[in-house]
């Protein structure tokens, strides 16, 4: 098990953080696992990168599961509730039944307006001092009520009911690289809530540093790539010719089998209607 260098910690939001606890594996671990299936042969960084890229674009995911990251995260409860919808990780969160929760709340620097077209999203910025004062008042009153209940002998597991969702919590989160990439693909998306995107950016920075070859392929084929529907493919086929598309791909540096794969994505012989 590899220990994180100096326990790398990245500050997130006003009081939160993402801290790398440890990493098991590297790009070499992905290649090593793949060799079990595909046999030996890759010896150089360039060949390793080509193999990892092949695995990524053909969705051979199990070799990526050989790499694991463990993080210590501090985040507001409403962010964590979104986070824990990704159910493939091992998680251990601070217990509000066992511990007295700290008086730490997330306070946004700016408010956002409700999105007009997205019922679960927001847009723009809104400066509202009254809203900020209202939030602070709720925090103060809620935590005072929490302390009063504890002083009355009310159980911690019940007293915590009065605390709002912007209270900070902490948890350990262990995830394999394949599912971590899935998490990042969703939570780095512009449609994800701004607050959780900031955590995803911090995690992405750490992941990129530890598995640069895998990150490069993930960015190329998933994060900045796209999947097309049958209708979208038909539209492209109506606009392009194989020759024109091949010329454009070559100008972007594709060649050999990689070029052929790209052509077959759009112009697959015998593609059903």
UniProtKB/TrEMBL annotation:
One Pfam family of this chain: Thy1
Gene Ontology BP term (one): methylation
Signal peptide (from-to): none
Chain positions recorded as FAD binding sites: 62, 85-87, 93, 176-178, 182
Catalytic activity: dUMP + (6R)-5,10-methylene-5,6,7,8-tetrahydrofolate + NADPH + H(+) = dTMP + (6S)-5,6,7,8-tetrahydrofolate + NADP(+)
Residue numbers binding dUMP: 82-85, 93-97, 160, 187
Keyword ATP-binding: no
Pathway(s) this gene product operates in, as recorded in its UniProt entry: Pyrimidine metabolism; dTTP biosynthesis
Record's keyword terms, sorted: FAD, Flavoprotein, Methyltransferase, NADP, Nucleotide biosynthesis, Transferase
Cofactor binding summary note: Binds 4 FAD per tetramer. Each FAD binding site is formed by three monomers.
Catalytic residues, chain numbering: 187 (involved in ionization of n3 of dump, leading to its activation)
GO function term, MF aspect, one: thymidylate synthase (FAD) activity
Needed co-factor(s): FAD
EC number: 2.1.1.148
Subunit organization: Homotetramer.
Matching PANTHER family: FLAVIN-DEPENDENT THYMIDYLATE SYNTHASE (PTHR34934)
Family: Belongs to the thymidylate synthase ThyX family.
Function per UniProt: Catalyzes the reductive methylation of 2'-deoxyuridine-5'-monophosphate (dUMP) to 2'-deoxythymidine-5'-monophosphate (dTMP) while utilizing 5,10-methylenetetrahydrofolate (mTHF) as the methyl donor, and NADPH and FADH(2) as the reductant.
Name assigned to this protein: Flavin-dependent thymidylate synthase
Organism expressing this protein natively: Thermus tengchongensis
The gene coding this protein: thyX
């Amino acid at each position: 098990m590899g220990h994180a260098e100096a326990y790398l910690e990245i500050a997130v939001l006003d009081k939160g953080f993402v801290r790398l606890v440890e990493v098991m594996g590297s790009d070499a671990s992905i290649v090593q696992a793949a060799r079990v299936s595909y046999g030996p042969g890759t010896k150089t960084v360039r060949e390793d990168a080509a193999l990892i890229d092949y695995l990524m674009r053909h969705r051979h995911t199990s070799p990526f599961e050989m790499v694991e990251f463990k993080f210590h995260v501090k985040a507001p409860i409403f962010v964590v509730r979104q986070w824990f919808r990704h159910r493939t990780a091992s998680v251990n969160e601070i217990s509000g039944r066992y511990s007295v929760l700290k008086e730490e709340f997330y306070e946004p620097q700016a408010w956002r307006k409700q999105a007009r077209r997205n019922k679960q999203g927001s847009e723009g910025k809104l400066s509202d001092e009254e809203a900020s004062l209202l939030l602070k008042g709720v925090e103060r009153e809620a935590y005072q009520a929490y302390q009063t209940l504890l002083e009355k002998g009310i159980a911690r597991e019940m007293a915590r009911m009065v605390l709002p969702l912007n209270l900070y919590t902490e948890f350990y989160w262990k995830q394999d690289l394949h599912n971590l990439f899935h998490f990042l693909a969703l939570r780095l998306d512009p449609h994800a809530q701004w607050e959780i995107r900031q955590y995803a950016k911090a995690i992405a920075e750490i992941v990129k540093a530890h598995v640069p070859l895998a990150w490069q392929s993930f960015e190329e084929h998933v994060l900045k790539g796209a999947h097309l529907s049958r209708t979208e493919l038909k539209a492209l086929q109506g606009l392009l010719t194989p020759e024109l598309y091949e010329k454009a791909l070559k100008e972007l540096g594709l060649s050999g089998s990689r070029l052929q794969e790209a052509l077959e994505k759009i112009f697959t012989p015998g593609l059903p209607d």
